[in-house]
Specification:
It comes from Kitasatospora herbaricolor. With 632 residues, the protein is an alpha+beta fold. It contains 23 helices and 16 strands. The strands form 3 sheets. Strands 3-2-1-6-5-4 form a 6-stranded antiparallel beta sheet, sandwiched between helices. Strands 8-7-11-10-9 form a 5-stranded antiparallel beta sheet. Strands 13-14-12-15-16 form a 5-stranded mixed beta sheet. A hairpin with a 2-residue loop joins strand 13 and strand 14. It is globular. The two termini are 50 Å apart.
């Protein structure tokens, strides 16, 4: 940026003061208005206008960071409340209060089943003003809460009154109307695969809840389930002490096991609060359970712990997720790591073929703590990726505007643009699929030094080139993984490895042409590099009808081969590939030279006497090449 003009300097200082003081957004516009009142020249006004826009971007970014920091702080405080409190009412009230604060809703509440009455009731509320709503009782299966309890999955509605997915009853609708609620989200409290309650957050105006908000509420629900489980264990222990004097020794052992589990949970929670890494949590759990602990991500890749995996790990994780608890596989135990209904990975405990209930619960709680840690790491990674994504967008938009500045800016963000990188261009059909693709790209790059950003109609991924895979292999891997994450076919094109803003922008252009070529060839959902497609990557990027061209050029031969079972197309390809040599063609086809001559005569009869002229020959060779690539 050039030095500011003398007339703009006071305004720029004022903008910096506003940023430093955390002023409201509206205050920034006043700087330009004051400059106009002073009658500043047009060039000064333009410079102040640009500076105001940049200041607002910084202001918005800082506000987003403060919001994320507030959310994480509240989540840590909740974990601290759980670790410090032993009173069930206090714990549940803290969870509901934090749920309301984290999501910024008007109300939050928690319902529990009443097994004696056969219905559910309001256990805790926060922000409620309606006595009718606070004393509401729901029959099993009714309302949004009934759907959550039946399916054991989170559900959200932007307008409960008009949503037909739920079984509406007069009593429930009257309570919701009296409270004035409109938008409602509910998540299950799961214990051993069983729904033991539902945690809700609600607004008195229409609102769409984001996936991050759903995940945060699910984490709080997991803590609530643990609190209820612990309270139940303590209640069982007290009842046993009162009624079974003869089993005093057994009760003491059980109480000690529960206390050990609580202490272990406190120690693990303290690790998370102190910013520990996954390996630190794994080491602590291994010490508590006197065994080996390995942590794997959702794809089964090792994140921490001893090398080597469990045979059939994916199947064991699926069973653990279905049952909601740790399962045994051979001499090892496997526990899924969940954030709500989303699997983040798994824990594998080795060296403990026998595991009593207390240690099994401790192992399962370690999975909850690991889920919280991975979720926090992913939230931080997504925030960093958004900031780096702005760098990538600027790089692709105007790489020649300030190459040196882009490289310096990248170093500050941990991205060395001076080193070789691979540029992948990913595309999925439809606006909704593109939105899912952007989020999937962030999850695909989680744990790496890669960067992703939406650019135009595509999502662009920038990966450091460590030489482990060629551009084509990287594109194929990305297409396969992104398709699994999004649930729709994803086409990925890769440019050549490049370093520096200008070269990276050129590689992006290659990747775009490669994606277009793959679409023209009918290879949607595939991945390839521009280098692998050769000149076709440039030729086919404009939307030509490849199928129509091949059919029009080779149609008579294709029809003849289909009807007669002959190999005229293969013979023509061998003839051209051998440099129009009958001898080399017959060797490649493993037939007599007279057979080649007879087939070429038939080709001439079907295509015309000019089939071997230069212009027609080029057209035929191109069609043969396109057919081969499309089939490949």
């Amino acid at each position: 940026m050039t030095d500011p003009t003398p007339g703009a300097a006071p305004a720029l200082r004022r903008l910096l003061d506003l940023l430093a003081s955390g002023a409201a957004t509206e205050d920034f516009a006043g700087v330009l208005a004051d400059a106009r009142l002073r009658g500043e020249p047009a060039d000064v006004l333009a410079e102040i206008d640009d500076a105001t826009w940049l200041a607002l971007r910084v202001h918005r970014t800082l506000r987003q960071h403060r919001r994320r920091e507030a959310e994480l702080t509240a989540l840590f405080d909740t974990a601290g409340d759980l670790a410090a409190s032993r009173d069930l009412d206090d714990v549940l009230q803290a969870i509901v209060r934090r749920a309301r604060m984290l999501l910024g809703t008007d109300t939050a509440y928690l319902t529990l089943p009443d097994e004696a009455a056969g219905d559910t009731y309001m256990r805790v509320t926060d922000g409620s003003v309606s006595a009718l709503f606070q004393n509401l009782r729901l029959s099993l299966g009714d309302g949004l809460g009934g759907l959550v309890a039946q399916s054991a999955r989170p559900y959200a509605t932007p307008d409960y009154r008009t949503d037909g997915r739920f079984h509406h009853t007069g009593q429930i609708d009257a309570g919701v109307l009296d409270e004035g609620l409109v938008a409602i989200i509910g998540v299950p409290l799961l214990l051993g695969g069983r729904v033991i309650g539902v945690l809700f957050a609600a607004d008195r105006s229409p609102r769409a809840f984001s996936p991050d908000e759903v995940a945060l509420l699910c984490s709080l629900a997991a803590h609530a389930a643990i609190a209820l489980d612990t309270a139940k264990s303590l209640a069982d222990t007290r009842a046993a002490l009162e009624s079974l004097n003869s089993a005093n020794a057994v009760i003491r052992a059980h109480s000690a096991a529960v206390q050990r589990a609580e202490q272990a949970h406190d120690r693990l929670t303290d690790l998370v609060l102190r910013g520990a890494e996954v390996a630190d949590v794994a080491a602590e759990v291994a010490a508590l359970l006197d065994g080996g602990i390995a942590v794997h991500d959702a794809d089964g890749n090792a994140l921490a712990g001893p090398a080597g995996g469990v045979e059939g790990l994916a199947e064991a994780v699926a069973v653990s997720r279905a049952e909601g608890r740790a399962v045994r596989r051979g001499d090892a135990w496997v526990c899924v790591v969940l954030a709500g209904q989303e699997p983040l990975g798994s824990l594998v405990l080795s060296g403990r073929p026998g595991l009593d209930d207390a240690d099994r619960r401790l192992f399962e709680r370690a999975g909850v703590v690991t889920a919280l840690l991975l979720l926090l790491r992913r939230s931080v990674a997504e925030t960093e990726n958004r900031v780096r994504g702005e760098l990538l967008a600027d790089l692709l938009t105007a790489p020649d505007r300030d190459p040196v500045g882009l490289v310096a800016r990248g170093r500050r963000l941990g991205v060395d643009l001076g080193r070789p990188h691979l540029v992948l261009v990913a595309e999925a059909a439809g606006p909704a699929a593109r939105g899912r693709l952007a989020g999937a790209a962030g999850r695909y790059l989680f744990g790496s030094r890669g960067v992703s950003a939406e650019h135009g109609e595509n999502v662009v991924l920038l990966l450091p080139d460590d030489g482990s895979a060629s551009p084509g292999e990287a594109a194929e891997q990305a297409a396969e993984r992104l398709a699994r994450l999004t649930g729709v076919p994803v086409t990925v094109g890769a440019g050549r490895s490049a370093a520096g803003p200008l070269a990276l922008a050129a590689a992006h252009a290659e990747g775009v042409r490669c994606v277009r070529a793959l679409r023209v060839l009918g290879r949607d959902g595939d991945g390839a590099s521009a280098q692998a497609l050769g000149f076709l990557g440039v030729l086919l990027g404009d939307g030509h009808n490849v199928g129509g061209f091949v059919g029009a050029t080779l149609g008579p031969l294709l029809d003849y081969d289909t009807r007669r079972g002959t190999e005229l197309v293969r013979t023509l390809r061998a003839y051209f590939d051998s440099g129009s040599s009958l001898t080399r063609a017959k060797d490649e086809l493993h037939v007599h030279v007279n057979t080649v001559v007879q087939r070429l005569d038939r080709i001439e009869a079907l295509l015309g006497r000019d089939w071997n002229q230069p212009e027609r020959s080029l057209e035929l060779q191109l069609a043969l090449r396109l057919q081969l690539l499309a089939d490949g």
